[in-house]
UniProtKB/TrEMBL annotation:
Name by which UniProt lists this protein: ATP synthase subunit delta
PANTHER family listed in its UniProt record: ATP SYNTHASE DELTA CHAIN
Membrane topology: Peripheral membrane protein
Single GO MF annotation: proton-transporting ATP synthase activity, rotational mechanism
Family to which the UniProt record says this protein belongs: Belongs to the ATPase delta chain family.
Keyword Lipid biosynthesis: no
Pfam families, per the entry: OSCP
Superkingdom of source: Bacteria
Keyword terms: ATP synthesis, Cell membrane, CF(1), Hydrogen ion transport, Ion transport, Membrane, Transport
Protein purpose: F(1)F(0) ATP synthase produces ATP from ADP in the presence of a proton or sodium gradient. F-type ATPases consist of two structural domains, F(1) containing the extramembraneous catalytic core and F(0) containing the membrane proton channel, linked together by a central stalk and a peripheral stalk. During catalysis, ATP synthesis in the catalytic domain of F(1) is coupled via a rotary mechanism of the central stalk subunits to proton translocation.
Entries under InterPro entries matching the protein: ATP_synth_OSCP/delta_N_sf, ATPase_OSCP/d_CS, ATPase_OSCP/dsu
Length: 177
């Protein structure tokens, strides 16, 4: 993140307003949609971040592009970002907004690496075992044959490594002494 502190402040302000209006979920979806538009049209991003184009012209372009497609709250927020010359922080604001939303709903996001693809049943069992204290766990999965067998689970800054390759490495280390 370029400026995580600034992005977090904007996200907190937006989440506060959206939460009071019961719009947090829709705002999250609208921000994701806006970012998808920017990703699929990089020339638009270049125009909106170009220093030679006036802020008013950028705001007019954004309003024309998204009016009727997103809520007034999100459109006003985008204009606020432009007024503050923080339009380049939109991706970071979205990431911070999603983190706030997840925390409020008791959701935890993680990543599961396995040597072979996991079945839905195995993933559900893993979610139920790791979802303590009423928290809901959502995983992205990744297949990594280098693990040989077992799993490596990342949740936040915690890593649970139950892979065969790491066990072999630990065993190799004990044999060195």
């Amino acid at each position: 993140m370029k400026n995580a502190v600034v992005a977090k402040r904007y996200a907190e302000a937006l989440y506060s307003v959206a939460g009071k209006g019961g719009q947090a979920d829709s705002v999250e979806q609208e921000l994701a949609g806006i970012l998808d538009v920017f990703k699929s049209h990089p020339e638009l991003t270049n125009i909106l971040e170009h220093p030679g184009i006036s802020i008013d012209a950028k705001k007019k372009q954004v309003t024309e592009l998204f009016k009727g497609r997103v809520s007034d709250l999100v459109l006003n927020f985008l204009n606020l970002l432009f007024d503050s010359r923080r339009q380049d922080a939109l991706t970071d604001v979205y990431t911070a907004f999603v983190e706030l939303s997840d925390a409020a709903k008791g959701r935890i996001k993680g990543e599961v690496e396995s040597a072979v693809p996991l079945s839905d049943e195995e993933l559900n069992e893993l979610k139920s075992k790791l979802g303590a204290n009423g928290q809901q766990v959502e995983f992205t999965t990744k297949v990594n044959p280098d693990l040989i067998g077992g799993l490596r689970v990342r949740i936040g800054d915690r890593v649970l490594d139950y892979s065969v390759s790491s066990q072999l490495n630990r065993f190799r280390q004990t044999l060195k002494y």
